[in-house]
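Appendix B. Raw example, untouched.
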Amino acid sequence: MLNISRPTKPRMKKLLLLPMSLVPIMVAVGGYASLARAADGERLAAQLCSACHGAHGNSESPIFPRLSAQTPEYLTAQLKNFREHARGESDARAYMWAIASQLDDATVASLADYYSHQEPVHGAAGDAALMAKGQDIFEHGVPDRGTPACASCHGEQGQGAGTFPRLAGQHKEYLLRQIEVFKNETRSNAPVMTAVAHTLDSDEAKAVAEWLQSR
Protein backbone atom coordinates (compact mmCIF):
# COMPACT_ATOMS: atom_id res chain seq x y z
CA MET A 1 0.00 0.00 0.00
CA LEU A 2 1.25 3.49 -0.84
CA ASN A 3 2.34 5.62 2.08
CA ILE A 4 0.69 9.00 1.55
CA SER A 5 1.70 11.56 4.10
CA ARG A 6 -0.56 14.35 5.33
CA PRO A 7 -0.16 17.59 3.31
CA THR A 8 1.68 20.39 5.09
CA LYS A 9 0.05 23.84 5.26
CA PRO A 10 2.04 25.28 2.30
CA ARG A 11 1.17 22.27 0.15
CA MET A 12 -2.47 22.46 1.20
CA LYS A 13 -2.52 26.11 0.09
CA LYS A 14 -1.22 25.04 -3.32
CA LEU A 15 -3.98 22.44 -3.60
CA LEU A 16 -6.58 25.08 -2.83
CA LEU A 17 -5.31 27.19 -5.74
CA LEU A 18 -5.83 24.34 -8.24
CA PRO A 19 -8.96 24.11 -10.41
CA MET A 20 -11.57 22.24 -8.34
CA SER A 21 -11.84 19.52 -10.99
CA LEU A 22 -8.19 18.65 -10.40
CA VAL A 23 -8.11 18.60 -6.59
CA PRO A 24 -9.55 15.06 -6.17
CA ILE A 25 -7.06 13.76 -8.73
CA MET A 26 -4.11 15.44 -7.07
CA VAL A 27 -5.16 14.18 -3.64
CA ALA A 28 -5.62 10.66 -5.02
CA VAL A 29 -1.92 10.46 -5.83
CA GLY A 30 -0.76 12.47 -2.85
CA GLY A 31 0.12 15.52 -4.96
CA TYR A 32 3.83 14.94 -4.49
CA ALA A 33 6.68 14.20 -6.85
CA SER A 34 7.97 11.59 -4.38
CA LEU A 35 4.83 9.55 -4.85
CA ALA A 36 5.01 9.97 -8.62
CA ARG A 37 8.57 8.66 -8.58
CA ALA A 38 7.50 5.60 -6.60
CA ALA A 39 4.62 4.65 -8.86
CA ASP A 40 5.11 2.59 -12.00
CA GLY A 41 3.45 3.71 -15.22
CA GLU A 42 0.46 1.39 -15.07
CA ARG A 43 -0.44 2.24 -11.49
CA LEU A 44 0.02 5.97 -11.98
CA ALA A 45 -1.98 5.88 -15.21
CA ALA A 46 -4.87 4.27 -13.35
CA GLN A 47 -4.67 6.74 -10.45
CA LEU A 48 -3.91 9.96 -12.24
CA CYS A 49 -4.74 9.73 -15.94
CA SER A 50 -7.70 7.38 -16.39
CA ALA A 51 -10.30 9.86 -15.05
CA CYS A 52 -9.84 11.91 -18.22
CA HIS A 53 -8.05 9.63 -20.69
CA GLY A 54 -9.96 6.44 -19.91
CA ALA A 55 -8.82 2.94 -19.02
CA HIS A 56 -5.62 2.05 -20.88
CA GLY A 57 -5.72 5.47 -22.57
CA ASN A 58 -8.92 4.77 -24.50
CA SER A 59 -10.66 8.08 -23.88
CA GLU A 60 -14.42 8.19 -24.41
CA SER A 61 -14.65 11.98 -24.35
CA PRO A 62 -13.42 13.95 -27.38
CA ILE A 63 -12.18 16.64 -25.01
CA PHE A 64 -9.33 14.34 -24.00
CA PRO A 65 -7.04 12.59 -26.51
CA ARG A 66 -6.67 8.85 -26.77
CA LEU A 67 -3.21 7.84 -25.56
CA SER A 68 -3.24 4.11 -26.31
CA ALA A 69 -0.53 3.02 -28.78
CA GLN A 70 0.84 6.57 -28.94
CA THR A 71 4.57 6.78 -29.62
CA PRO A 72 6.65 6.93 -26.42
CA GLU A 73 8.81 9.71 -27.84
CA TYR A 74 5.80 11.94 -28.43
CA LEU A 75 4.26 11.24 -25.02
CA THR A 76 7.58 11.94 -23.30
CA ALA A 77 8.01 15.22 -25.16
CA GLN A 78 4.47 16.42 -24.47
CA LEU A 79 4.50 15.59 -20.76
CA LYS A 80 7.72 17.56 -20.42
CA ASN A 81 6.22 20.40 -22.45
CA PHE A 82 3.25 20.50 -20.07
CA ARG A 83 5.57 20.40 -17.08
CA GLU A 84 7.71 23.23 -18.44
CA HIS A 85 4.69 25.24 -19.70
CA ALA A 86 5.91 25.01 -23.30
CA ARG A 87 2.34 24.21 -24.34
CA GLY A 88 0.15 27.18 -23.58
CA GLU A 89 -3.25 26.43 -25.12
CA SER A 90 -6.19 26.71 -22.72
CA ASP A 91 -6.71 22.94 -22.33
CA ALA A 92 -3.05 22.48 -21.43
CA ARG A 93 -3.29 25.16 -18.75
CA ALA A 94 -6.57 23.86 -17.35
CA TYR A 95 -5.83 20.15 -17.21
CA MET A 96 -2.16 19.31 -17.66
CA TRP A 97 0.10 21.96 -16.16
CA ALA A 98 -0.66 21.12 -12.54
CA ILE A 99 -0.60 17.36 -13.10
CA ALA A 100 2.63 17.31 -15.11
CA SER A 101 4.36 19.47 -12.51
CA GLN A 102 4.31 16.43 -10.19
CA LEU A 103 6.16 14.12 -12.60
CA ASP A 104 9.90 13.56 -12.70
CA ASP A 105 11.69 12.26 -15.80
CA ALA A 106 11.59 8.62 -14.68
CA THR A 107 7.83 8.75 -14.14
CA VAL A 108 7.30 10.48 -17.49
CA ALA A 109 9.26 7.69 -19.17
CA SER A 110 7.26 5.05 -17.32
CA LEU A 111 3.92 6.55 -18.37
CA ALA A 112 5.06 6.92 -21.97
CA ASP A 113 6.21 3.31 -22.07
CA TYR A 114 2.94 2.05 -20.56
CA TYR A 115 0.64 3.88 -22.98
CA SER A 116 2.76 3.04 -26.01
CA HIS A 117 2.18 -0.68 -25.34
CA GLN A 118 -1.61 -0.47 -25.08
CA GLU A 119 -3.86 -1.72 -27.87
CA PRO A 120 -4.86 0.98 -30.38
CA VAL A 121 -8.45 2.12 -30.74
CA HIS A 122 -10.16 2.30 -34.12
CA GLY A 123 -12.92 4.91 -34.31
CA ALA A 124 -16.19 4.78 -36.19
CA ALA A 125 -16.27 5.43 -39.93
CA GLY A 126 -17.97 8.61 -41.10
CA ASP A 127 -19.24 9.99 -44.39
CA ALA A 128 -17.63 8.01 -47.24
CA ALA A 129 -17.04 11.00 -49.53
CA LEU A 130 -15.55 13.09 -46.73
CA MET A 131 -13.29 10.24 -45.66
CA ALA A 132 -12.07 9.74 -49.24
CA LYS A 133 -11.19 13.42 -49.44
CA GLY A 134 -9.40 13.22 -46.09
CA GLN A 135 -7.40 10.19 -47.13
CA ASP A 136 -6.28 11.92 -50.30
CA ILE A 137 -5.09 14.97 -48.35
CA PHE A 138 -3.38 12.78 -45.77
CA GLU A 139 -1.53 10.79 -48.43
CA HIS A 140 -0.81 13.52 -50.98
CA GLY A 141 -1.29 16.88 -49.27
CA VAL A 142 -2.67 19.92 -51.10
CA PRO A 143 0.08 20.71 -53.62
CA ASP A 144 -1.54 23.93 -54.89
CA ARG A 145 -1.19 25.48 -51.43
CA GLY A 146 2.02 23.83 -50.40
CA THR A 147 0.39 21.51 -47.84
CA PRO A 148 2.64 18.47 -47.43
CA ALA A 149 1.29 14.95 -47.16
CA CYS A 150 0.50 14.21 -43.51
CA ALA A 151 1.80 10.68 -44.07
CA SER A 152 5.33 12.01 -44.66
CA CYS A 153 5.64 12.70 -40.92
CA HIS A 154 2.87 10.70 -39.24
CA GLY A 155 3.28 7.41 -41.12
CA GLU A 156 1.33 5.86 -43.99
CA GLN A 157 -1.58 4.85 -41.75
CA GLY A 158 -1.24 7.68 -39.24
CA GLN A 159 0.50 5.34 -36.82
CA GLY A 160 3.08 7.93 -35.80
CA ALA A 161 6.87 7.91 -35.95
CA GLY A 162 9.09 8.98 -33.09
CA THR A 163 8.20 12.50 -31.97
CA PHE A 164 5.54 12.71 -34.69
CA PRO A 165 2.37 11.49 -32.95
CA ARG A 166 0.01 8.69 -33.80
CA LEU A 167 -3.16 10.25 -35.25
CA ALA A 168 -4.98 7.08 -36.26
CA GLY A 169 -8.09 6.40 -34.19
CA GLN A 170 -7.97 9.80 -32.50
CA HIS A 171 -11.20 11.71 -31.80
CA LYS A 172 -11.93 13.93 -34.81
CA GLU A 173 -13.05 16.73 -32.48
CA TYR A 174 -9.73 16.62 -30.68
CA LEU A 175 -7.80 16.67 -33.96
CA LEU A 176 -9.78 19.68 -35.18
CA ARG A 177 -9.17 21.52 -31.92
CA GLN A 178 -5.42 20.94 -32.24
CA ILE A 179 -5.40 22.24 -35.80
CA GLU A 180 -7.19 25.33 -34.51
CA VAL A 181 -4.73 26.00 -31.67
CA PHE A 182 -1.84 25.57 -34.10
CA LYS A 183 -3.53 28.11 -36.37
CA ASN A 184 -4.09 30.68 -33.64
CA GLU A 185 -0.62 29.86 -32.26
CA THR A 186 -1.71 29.30 -28.68
CA ARG A 187 -0.01 25.94 -29.14
CA SER A 188 3.39 26.92 -30.42
CA ASN A 189 5.61 23.96 -29.55
CA ALA A 190 5.53 22.48 -33.09
CA PRO A 191 6.45 25.09 -35.72
CA VAL A 192 6.01 22.60 -38.57
CA MET A 193 2.38 22.02 -37.60
CA THR A 194 1.74 25.73 -37.17
CA ALA A 195 2.80 26.25 -40.79
CA VAL A 196 0.80 23.26 -42.06
CA ALA A 197 -2.36 24.23 -40.16
CA HIS A 198 -2.40 27.64 -41.86
CA THR A 199 -2.58 25.95 -45.28
CA LEU A 200 -5.72 23.91 -44.49
CA ASP A 201 -9.19 25.34 -44.82
CA SER A 202 -11.96 24.17 -42.47
CA ASP A 203 -13.45 21.65 -44.93
CA GLU A 204 -10.06 20.05 -45.56
CA ALA A 205 -9.32 19.85 -41.84
CA LYS A 206 -12.70 18.17 -41.21
CA ALA A 207 -12.07 15.65 -43.98
CA VAL A 208 -8.64 14.66 -42.66
CA ALA A 209 -9.95 14.37 -39.09
CA GLU A 210 -12.90 12.25 -40.25
CA TRP A 211 -10.60 9.81 -42.05
CA LEU A 212 -8.06 9.60 -39.22
CA GLN A 213 -10.73 8.85 -36.60
CA SER A 214 -11.73 5.75 -38.55
CA ARG A 215 -8.24 4.28 -38.76
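End of appendix B.
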